[in-house]
Structures are given as C-alpha cells and as structure tokens.
Amino acid sequence: MVQFYYHDNKDTLENFTEPHDSGKPVTQEELAAIGVIYKYITTQQELDALAKEREYKNRDVVNLNLAAFNNDLDAYNAKMQQFYKEHYHDDEEIRYIVDGEGYFDVRNKGDEWIRARLEKNDLLILPAGIYHRFTLTDGLKQVKAVRLFKDEPKWEAINRDSGKESDARLSYAQSIAV
Ligand code: KMT
Ligand code: NI
C-alpha cells in the first residue's frame, strides 16, 4: 500500500534507506498542489493509455539492486548516493513500479521533504523542475520500474547544490508560488 508522509529529516549517508517517517501523513491533494500525481495502475492497457494521453513516446525498464551491479558494492553504493542527491530534470518524470519498492522524496512549497513509499502497481508523475531524490528501501533493496520518457531518454539530473536553475526549474517554481 502506498504511503505519503513528511520525512523526519534525520537521515545520514548511513541510514537514508530507512523509512524516516515523521508520523505526519500527507494527502494526495497536498501532492497535487505541487504538481505530483499518484496513480494505482494494474494493467498494461491503463499504463499505455496514460502514456498516450500525456504523449509519452519512449519507455524502458530499470532493475535496481546489488545484483544489477554484478554485486559490486562500491558501484551500487555510488549509484544509490547519486539517486539520493537532491536534483531536478527539465522533463516530467514518470515512474511505474513493477516489482520491489522504493522511496521518492519531493520538496513541497515550504521546501520540506515529503516521502512517497511506492511498491508494485504504484505510479508517480513528477513535474519538470521539482526537486526530488530517490532511494531503495532498507528492507528489500530492490526495485523494478518502468521509466517513461516524452521523447528520447533525457538523463540529465541537475543537482541542487550546483545552483543551476534552468527555465523548466524557474517556471515550475513560479507555478507553485503562493
Ligand atoms: C530519478 O530520476 O531520481 C530516478 O529515476 C530514480 C530511479 S527510478 C526507480
Ligand atoms: Ni530524478
């Protein structure tokens, strides 16, 4: 079952895969206010219909776990730390969980972290320009997800600590300004 809650902000580089649940839940309405959309999808047809409606032309499937890195713990840890670094993309990001589980953290209007705990059949749409990060869960340490792309896969992640704010970032920030 999907869960949305405020992050407790007690994360370190050693424990960031733990739940970090502050105990304060977040509603889907609160997420919608920052452009984050959640859907529960159980069939290929529903996924295809969503992709068509939002004009997504490409997709791939990613498997994240230690085995996917040939059990190279350093390579695995490096990738995990990269995904957990706060970043945004110039394109909307859709992730559909096929197996396993993971946490997506998104910033709200007040720059607080909201955590989405996703598992099988959960789909999340993150708007272009939103600051976010991702991690596997400490229990399973495994996810299989479909990544949908509007056009060619655009992998560029712009880290918050780079200070770079693209047009997509600026227009997103303006769209949620109170
Ligand atoms: C991202 O951009 O943060 C990701 O794609 C995370 C991995 S997808 C399960
Ligand atoms: Ni991302």
Blueprint (SSEs and pairs):
Blueprint: E1 3-7, E2 21-25, H1 28-33, E3 37-40, H2 44-53, E4 58-64, H3 73-84, E5 87-88, E6 93-107, E7 113-119, E8 122-126, E9 132-136, E10 143-149, E11 158-159, H4 167-176
Antiparallel strand pairs: 1-2, 1-7, 3-8, 4-10, 5-11, 6-7, 6-8, 6-9, 6-10
4-(methylsulfanyl)-2-oxobutanoic acid (KMT) is lined by residues 62, 83, 93, 95, 102, 134, 143, 145, 147.
Describe the structure.
The chain is of the alpha+beta class and 178 residues long. The chain has one domain: Jelly Rolls, CATH 2.60.120. Helix content is 21%, strand content 36%. The protein contains 4 helices and 11 strands. Strands 1, 2, 3, 4, 6, 7, 8, 9 and 10 form a 9-stranded antiparallel sheet that branches. Strands 5-11 form a two-stranded antiparallel ribbon. Strand 6 and strand 7 form a beta hairpin. The chain starts with a strand and ends with a helix. The mean pLDDT is 95. The site of 4-(methylsulfanyl)-2-oxobutanoic acid has 9 residues, from strand 6 and strand 10.
Total tally of structural domains: 1
The CATH class designation is Mainly Beta
Count of alpha/pi helices: 4
Shape: globular
The fraction of residues in strands falls at 35-45%
Number of strands: 11
Bound molecules: 4-(methylsulfanyl)-2-oxobutanoic acid, nickel (II) ion
Biggest sheet details? 9 strands, antiparallel
What is the end-to-end distance? Answer: 31 Å
* CATH architecture heading: Sandwich
CATH homologous superfamily - what is it? Jelly Rolls
Low-confidence stretches: none
Order of helices and strands: EEHEHEHEEEEEEEH
